[in-house]
Amino acid sequence: MHIGPSHAFHQRQSLVVTAQLQQAIRLLQMGNTELQGFIEAQAEENPFVDARAPQPAPPRDRPLPASVTRRSSDDDWDRIAALPDDRGPSLYAHVEAHVEALGLTPREARIAGAFLDALEPSGWIGQSVAEVAAQAGVTETEAETVLNLMQRIEPAGLFARNLAECLYLQARAQRLLTPVFEAVLRNLPLVAAADMAGLARVCRCQIEDLRPALRELRALDPKPGAQFDATPVPQLPPDLIARRGADGWVVDLNRSTLPSIVVRAGDKDQPTPREPAARAEAARYIAERLSVARWLARAVAHRNETSLRIGAEIVRRQQGFLEHGPASLRPMTLREVAEAVGVHESTVSRVCSGLMMATPQGCFPLKHFFTAALSASSGDEAGSAGAVRHRIRELIRAESPRDPLSDEAIAQIVSSEGIQLARRTVAKYREMMDIPSSAARRRRAILDAQTR
Q1: Where in the sequence of the chain do the CATH 1.10.10.60 domains occur?
Q2: Phi first, then psi: what are they for 134, rounded to 5°?
Q3: Given this structure, which CATH class describes domain 385-450?
Q4: What residues does the RNA polymerase sigma factor 54 DNA-binding domain cover (predicted)?
Q5: CA pair distance 149, 156, nearest whole angstrom
Q6: Cβ within 8 Å of residue 313, ≥6 positions away
Q7: Contact indicator for 377, 415 with CB cutoff of 8 Å
């Protein structure tokens, strides 16, 4: 047996994800706003990159299959950003200003600071009085005294320890505290269960006597602190715009938010140092930076072209949705769009995860248009999960409040319309849309009827 060194050669193929390829993949996932920030950052590092602000372009038509075209848009989707911020002070700033006006002693101010630390966005305190007292190094009696002072800060209901106390503080401020009202506050679980007979029995009154108290109770705010920190949902401008044109549907990039890149290749002709070594180093730097700038311009152009092609294919397949709404949403998968466009399925997934499209039905992320197919009762074309969810919402909206549809009844109705649907599927879709169960909807209808 001979043991000694030897050489062996093997050949294999592997995919190397270079830094440029990684960056190109990230560009596909960027919306127009994020892309603008990225290009501006590149322009600060690279002297050959000139970031141009978004500019509306004149209309131009480019034909696509199936009466879907792409054209530029000069719609200004940046008007929302110019609106003034009219939000008031935060909850913490509001309460802190009122605490300073209470004229507290230094010891009481320390206790008030501990309660401020325990204040939650809802306006309630997230700790017990004992925990706040221990944090401030005082007795529970002292903490209770300061808490009573802070509970008088407007709006009423702040610094409550639970729902009943929050509603009690508001009722006290509005002079609503009658014996019946206080009894209702002590039995809120019966109110939630819509057990009017049981509530009347424990309150020792008639059901008719409960109606004014329940009406006043529903007018109170269970989370008085939410009005301060309720920031508006940001409305992102769309990256693609789809609308009906003279020759069919038109889709294009939103030019009012889309930045552009200009490669300043003329800068390479600037004077160079006289020393050979410095001149060679400058030449290498210029060549490398210029190559990066040109690659970035090509990558952005490829990103825009890919986004347009995918958006146009989505519009071609979902013309029923654009014309008639969610009920006409067709089943569509990433693989189908990828095969039609001629790209990989992962490319479609990346583009659809970050881009928004404005349509006559509203502004939606591209992934909204992809929905699974459900089995049909006959040989007809299967329906989409999105259209079924819309149908479930319509059925619940049209139901009788006192006799709401159960999940089983909804499943039978949808199945009779040609789409096989199980009860558990209805329950899953209903929970996805934050719609309560039929029992909860019935209880709410009973309370509505009693408080009219």
Answers
A1: 385-450
A2: -65, -40
A3: mainly alpha
A4: 284-443
A5: 12
A6: 68, 337, 340, 341
A7: yes
